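Bench log. Compound arrived from synthesis this morning; before running ITC I wanted a structural hypothesis for how magnesium ion sits in the protein. Inputs:
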Amino acid sequence: MKSQDVRKQFLDFFKSNGHLIVPSAPIVLKDDPTLMFNNSGMAQFKEFFLGNGTPKSPRIADTQKCLRVSGKHNDLEDVGFDTYHHTMFEMLGNWSFGDYFKKEAINWAWTLLTEVYKIPKENLYVSVFEGSKEDNVPFDQEAWDIWKTLIDEDRIILGNKKDNFWEMGDQGPCGPCSEIHVDLRSEEEKALKPGKEEVNNDHPQVVEIWNNVFMEFNRKADGSLEKLPAQHVDTGMGFERLCMALQGKTSNYDTDVFTPLIEKVEQITGLKYTSNDAMTSRDLSIQEKQNKTNIAIRVIVDHVRAVAFAIADGQLPSNTGAGYVIRRILRRAIRYGFTFLNTKEPFINKLVEVLANQMGEFFPEIKSQQQFVTNVIREEEASFLRTLDQGLQLLDHVIAETTGQEVSGAKVFELYDTFGFPKDLTALILKEKGFSYNEEEFEVELQKQKARSRAASEISTEDWNVLIPGNVETFVGYDKTDNEVKITRIRKV
Ligand code: ATP
Ligand code: MG
Ligand code: MG
Ligand code: MG
């Protein structure tokens, strides 16, 4: 089944069950001090859960563009090393705002997966919240009893607060959840160990696909829980993971969500992607054994989606806030290409066309802003590539001069300040070589620099602009000082 059809069937199913289908909210949030990016489908409905305002319908479904690169949900470090965590992904979701609750949600989820998508029941496991003394929330007997009518009891697993109590951030609506996991291992491997033991255990082929959250609480700033005015349902299913299960693959990158992008990278670089080496381990010695080319390709085809959609939603790469997060993601991708794919010229921008052709029908913003997004990425690439080589040479030099395994924080700051190396990028490169750096020293240098720039603040300029969707704007280019991109110019036409 093609990914386009997977998405459509989800929406059609919930539409036929009385849900209003709404568009995805932008990936970047501009008016929520607790959250920088949409990290889940529910973020745009948060206020309704809190009892502020009324949704257009008590039942809603959609697919939401999500980004998990900061805050409570941050998967950046796993991306490329495993095969099922992305920075940007789509979350299919259905919601009840004070309408249906556990029974309907669980039954619909089961019907959709087993009857519409026809996933064999013997490949599925579900989990139920075991309760938390700390928060005074009991074991979810109700969910257990509903699942019992649908699935063998030995396929129901108890889950702890980490896995089965969902929270958007440190504050906000939350509640116990029930998750569905799919076992895609080979028959031989299944015979060796029950899938149940691999659930929530970082096995790349026993993955969580769908979370059904029963929103009943609000986490307050002081950490305590209060009951929400009504009971709600909030579900989120990873679209790319579902495609993997339905397309008979064992990696999200082998689905048609990613293969056109991978083919384009292969075409540009002349290198081949061989998918079957993906690992889940964060252990360096294991990562070392993985094929660096494959990791780099996964990182790049993942990151370009995050960056392209963020730019299309109006968040340009910049030196502050959300813009800096986007710049860091892009620079991370550029460095992976430079070091492991030998790409010395801008090329990531060329993937935007592929992305727009593939996703443009459902997400028109990527199609209508294709040229703009391409130009911004190309400029960013060109700018960073100008200093990347020198910066990497400096880093090698610093490493050669270091006794022990810890590099000076002042040097990492120099890389940041002069060569535009985000500190997490430097940390990543150092980690690959078995080094770390002194973070305190970095901070000291950063504070010194801030003090210097405060003194010169009268002449400082804003370095990013928010695009207003719908406005026709032409990208003119960046103004540059010695090494850093300082001002992004956008001229209305
Ligand atoms: P995991 O345990 O695999 O990290 P999660 O429990 O953090 O997932 P939820 O917050 O429950 O994920 O989000 C709902 C669904 O979104 C998950 O069941 C999964 O299918 C999908 N999902 C979560 N994080 C990612 C990601 N980084 N990339 C792709 N899909 C994801
Ligand atoms: Mg997670
Ligand atoms: Mg989980
Ligand atoms: Mg989950």
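What the model suggests: Confidence is low (pLDDT under 50) at residues 459-493. The domain at 3-246 is CATH 3.30.930.10 (BirA Bifunctional Protein; domain 2).
ITC booked for Thursday regardless.
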